[in-house]
Hints:
Elements: E1 3-6, H1 29-40, H2 43-46, E2 48-49, H3 57-60, H4 66-73, H5 80-88, H6 99-118, E3 124-127, H7 149-161, E4 166-170, H8 177-183, E5 189-196, E6 223-228, H9 235-253, E7 257-262, H10 281-289, E8 297-301, H11 309-321, H12 337-350, H13 368-377, H14 387-391, E9 408-413, E10 425-426, H15 435-442, H16 448-465, E11 469-476, H17 479-487, E12 498-503, E13 518-524, E14 536-540, H18 548-566, E15 570-575, H19 583-593, E16 601-606, H20 613-620, H21 636-649
Parallel strand pairs: 1-2, 1-3, 3-8, 4-5, 4-7, 5-6, 7-8, 9-10, 9-11, 11-16, 12-13, 12-15, 13-14, 15-16
Helix pairs in contact: 1-11, 6-7, 9-10, 9-12, 9-18, 10-11, 16-17, 18-19, 18-21, 19-20
Amino acid sequence: MGTALIYDEEMTKYKLLWVDPACKIEVPERLTVSYEALVRSGLSDRCVSIPPREATDAEILLAHSEEYLEAVKKTPYMTLEDLKEFTLQYGDVYFHPNIYHCAKLAAGSALQLVDSVMTGKVRNGIALVRPPGHHSMRSAANGFCVFNNVAIAAQYAKQKHGVKRVLIVDWDIHHGQGVQYCFEDDPSVLYYSWHRYEHQKFWPNLRESDYDSVGKGNGAGFNVNVPWNKVGMENSDYLSIFCHVLLPVAYEFCPDLVLVCAGFDSAIGDPEGEMCATPDIFAHLTHLLMNLAGGKLCAVLEGGYNLTSLPQSVCQTVQTLLGDPLPQPAGLRSPCKSALESLQCVRSAHRRYWSFLKHAANQPSTDISTKRIKLANEEEGKTEMAVEERAAEIKEWPEPPERPSPPVRCASLLPEDVACPDGLKLFSSSKDLHPLLASKLQNGADDQDALITVSRLYAMIEKMLTNEIGSGLVLISDISAAMMGALQDLPSDLVDRVLVVCVGKEKDLNYLTTDGKMLFVQISDEDKEKEKNKYFIPVSLKKGCSDTAGFIQAVLGLLLPLAYEYDPTLVLLVRTPGSGVDDSMWQQLIGLLLGFAKGHTLVLMQTNEKVHVGPTASALLGRPAPPLLELQTLDQEDGEALERLRERLQTDWKMLQTTSEGTE
Ligand SMILES: CC(O)(O)NCCCCN
Ligand SMILES: [Zn+2]
């Protein structure tokens, strides 16, 4: 299924008609440069073009009051003076004779996107709209927003498509207070937002944007605010918040639909955000959400004011929605102290609502809310520094890397009697021994067949690293022998950093190395807590890999952060017989692992488990994993063991940190 693209140049036909420094950045070119970049890169041709439509009154009233709608309806007929007068009642927004029409198109675009995804016409999609929506409230325009496009879309999805749980991820750098107000007592809509906050000194300067606004009444726990109290946040900060806050909560919430308030003012170069995350980070943020809700994801443009990083970020997002390989998330380092403080505060504020956060640490001793009160009392004037001054610090950043799709998306090495699943291409490798193995033959290696198997594995790995093949699926009769053969002194000129994820128990692991060429993560029911090798991470679950809650917790809170920090050039995923992992969990794992090593994941399974070949192939082809069934709660002892493991490892692996204690 395809990716929808909703855009219409009509939404460029309004602009600021008077002087207002706070609003001058919201220009029509935001939309044109984004769409033109999609056209130039050939991405728009690969999308399913869906026309926008005007939202009806009834649809707008899903999130707004009648009096507000009636008032906005009058604006097309206002004189310039009336428009200025009308605008004065709201904050940081402007009106124009054509903005009501565009606001209906923006909201209608979001609804068209929801319809296209919910009816299965497309898998996912993006709507390039203006005016944005997430600041507008029931009876007020605000922050360049007139109607709350995503809030209306969430209500519409519930009402028209019977969606039970909607996840809204707001990666715009501003807090979508309009969305928060709309759903704060509604447990069927989980609103997650990070936003520049600086202890309430940054616009819209709201006390309720802080991490302790967790939702009200039945909605308690379903509003997650992550305040950025410093500018300059980087890719590592964004990814660690996704791994340690958003994803555990999102997987436990188990949404039927994901809506993204896709604001790109959180990218480097933006005068509003002043952050340092590069445009390719949106490839990863999008990918990490694509295995939720069976892949049903609707992204709706919010902010984004740097006319270079905005189109780059939009293209990165669309390319991931289309299923292209991800760029390596290079240059990750430890999240900064301020990000870790926010991380710790959010996790402790939500500990009581989400079993996946149950083991989160307490609020940091240097409680950041006291800073908020102190700083907020200082003279307000400083916060209103003109936008131009802030924009002066615009940084340089590299063009996002190319993300070419390999000619063969997924190759397979199967025994003759196993049919090649559709979409996979049988890997034909020469019968003679791989030169790298010739040495093993000389010192009389015994088992010829094993050597041939390893030889073909090496040949497949080589084709991956030259990007002739994306991923691979290999069935072998004896998995232990194959792992021994392949991993025993793995030739360094074959691959320099391989992440081995071993699902299930595996007896002798004496090919482990300590030189960092291989990071070995094992999830099983074997308890090996005494391991001291930084590159061997044994995760033990009492009930083994069949325990979905424990498994997903290990994947999200341990494996993902480790993999981001390690940044492998190859992922080797091994499923040992009798692991007990269920297919939907297995597909989730594959889907998430494809985000690393430019999609070069090689799956090793034993021939007697060929019944799992179909689901494995489907996941390797980038098809979304089915939603996980309602997760049981996390086993207490497993949760504590995972926490101990994370504590022990975080001195070596900075992406595992979830508290600010101990950081300089
Ligand atoms: C959509 C948005 O979040 O980017 N709007 C930002 C408004 C900033 C006003 N100072
Ligand atoms: Zn914004």
